[in-house]
Amino acid sequence: MTDTKSQIESIALAKLIDHPDNPNRMSKTNFNKLSRNIESTGCYEPLVVRPHPKKKNCYQIINGHHRKKALEKLQAAVADCIIWDLDDKQTDVLLMTLNRLSGSDMLGKKIAILKRLNAQIETKNLSRLLPQTKKQIEQLTNLKLPQIPLRQAQNLATPLIFFVTESQKQTIEKAISLANADGKTKAKRNAVALNKIADNFLETNE
Predict the structure, then answer these.
(1) How many alpha carbons lie under 13 Å from residue 11 in its C-beta half-sphere?
(2) pLDDT above 70 (res 20)
(3) Are 64 and 45 in contact (CB under 8 A)?
């Protein structure tokens, strides 16, 4: 950054210009959920913008393109923005990272939050606000996690849970069977096989 100072301002939506090379896309379903969240709470993360390099008194969006569109849909006049003074190179780096760098969910905490929400909001309505579908919310909130003593947790494997279609399931099971992994139990063999497949993929693409 050419200037480390940041400031938050309310800027007219008409002055916020999308970056033409923004690589991030959002499904229609998730966009509708974003819009409903903003409408119901009135809260959203401020957009990240920079002074537009070509248009005077305008700003170019670096992060927050979908939030701007949601605010437009809700007929808002302004958006809260963080203004960063960036050159083109710095902007390109941020375009590639701001919407791409993320951590992973801790399953237990994720389920606890879902259960708290589900106790107050019907599953169907909750699925309209969250990334998960109604079926995924039901599966996660009904998932039984093993009770593990803290002293044992460090030495145990970490559960990896995801949902696939029937076609995807058949493909994964076929790949696992071809991996010829060793293990005393089916779960152990599947874990070793998936790890072997992932290692081969990474080696091929490095």
Answers:
(1) 25
(2) yes
(3) yes
Return the HEC string of the chain.
Answer: CCEEEEEEEEEEHHHEECCCCCCCCCCHHHHHHHHHHHHHHCCCCCEEEEECCCCCCCEEEEECHHHHHHHHHCCCCEEEEEEEECCHHHHHHHHHHCCCCCCCCCHHHHHHHHHHHHHHCCHHHHCCCCCCCHHHHHHHHCCCCCCCCHHHHCCCCCCCCCCCCHHHHHHHHHHHHHHCCCCCCHHHHHHHHHHHHHHHHHHHHC
Residue 115 makes CB contacts below 8 A (sequence gap 6+) with 141
Angle value at C-alpha 12, between 7 and 16, nearest 5 degrees: 80
Taking the C-alpha atoms of residue 60 and residue 154, their distance in angstroms, rounded to an integer, is 46
CATH 3.90.1530.10 residue spans of the chain = 3-97
Model confidence, pTM: 0.57
166 alpha carbon, distance to own chain's centre: 24
Domain 3-97 grouped into CATH 3.90.1530.10: yes
pLDDT in tens, 31-84: 999 999 999 999 999 999 999 999 999 999 999 999 999 999 999 999 999 999
